[in-house]
Amino acid sequence: NAGVMQNPRHLVRRRGQEARLRCSPMKGHSHVYWYRQLPEEGLKFMVYLQKENIIDESGMPKERFSAEFPKEGPSILRIQQVVRGDSAAYFCASSPRGTGETQYFGPGTRLLVL
Amino acid sequence: GQQVMQIPQYQHVQEGEDFTTYCNSSTTLSNIQWYKQRPGGHPVFLIQLVKSGEVKKQKRLTFQFGEAKKNSSLHITATQTTDVGTYFCAGRNGGSQGNLIFGKGTKLSVKP
């Protein structure tokens, strides 16, 4: 049973470009969470999605960031017009049911904005 | 909003010494989870505590959940170099719909 998969593992973008981060949850998991981790910092919750629905986006910046989890395919975290402050590790986690469950983390995408 | 604080931020120990990290929440938690993240790696789930005063053990690791369900601790006995990493606590309130709030973690280094 494959774990949570994220790609790319490393992504370099120039300021103003778009970054697309993909997350495939564990088989049988229908709940996906995105977190951002700055160097030497903890994990900051961004958004919680189920298939085709955003359940909680209270941690998402109001501008430039969006997330989706379509019926088919991976969850996508999209950052438009990236700035240097967006450089961070972005982790996706999944769980089989609701937020009361253990979350299984993917390997993360390390985004570097030049 | 809810805050989860962890202390210390860093801990350097000699191999064989014990290590403890503490987690405190500003609100009562429905449960608390602990994760370990190795350098360059991703968080890996260790354990979940649900009951007031609960104590769980995993080999050399002992996890406690406070009576008031507002604090927790992780204690490692006789640390080994394989224990190196950052240990995060993550709390949840508001029943099963509350999202996990992570502490900033305690980074443990072990000198052989």
Per-chain topology:
The complex is a heterodimer of chains A (114) and B (112).
Chain A: E1 5-7, E2 10-13, E3 19-24, E4 31-37, E5 43-50, E6 53-56, E7 65-68, E8 75-79, E9 88-95, E10 104-105, E11 109-113
Parallel strand pairs in A: 2-11
Antiparallel strand pairs in A: 1-3, 3-8, 4-5, 4-9, 5-6, 7-8, 9-10, 9-11
Chain B: E1 4-7, E2 10-14, E3 19-25, E4 31-37, E5 44-49, E6 55-58, E7 61-65, E8 71-76, E9 85-92, E10 101-102, E11 106-111
Parallel strand pairs in B: 2-11
Antiparallel strand pairs in B: 1-3, 3-8, 4-5, 4-9, 6-7, 7-8, 9-10, 9-11
Can you put this structure into words, describing what you see?
The complex is a heterodimer of chains A (114) and B (112). Chain A is an all-beta fold and 114 residues long. Chain A has no helices and eleven strands. Chain A has strands spanning 5-7, 10-13, 19-24, 31-37, 43-50, 53-56, 65-68, 75-79, 88-95, 104-105, 109-113. In chain A, the strands form two sheets. In chain A, strands 2, 4, 5, 6, 9, 10 and 11 form a seven-stranded mixed sheet that branches. Chain A is globular, with a radius of gyration of 13 Å. The N and C termini of chain A lie far apart (37 Å). Chain B is mostly beta strands. Helices cover 0% and strands 54% of the residues of chain B. Chain B has strands at residues 4-7, 10-14, 19-25, 31-37, 44-49, 55-58, 61-65, 71-76, 85-92, 101-102, 106-111. The radius of gyration of chain B is 13 Å and the shape is globular. Chain B has one domain: Immunoglobulins (Immunoglobulin-like). Chains A and B meet through strand 5 and strand 10 of A and strand 4, strand 5, strand 9 and strand 10 of B.
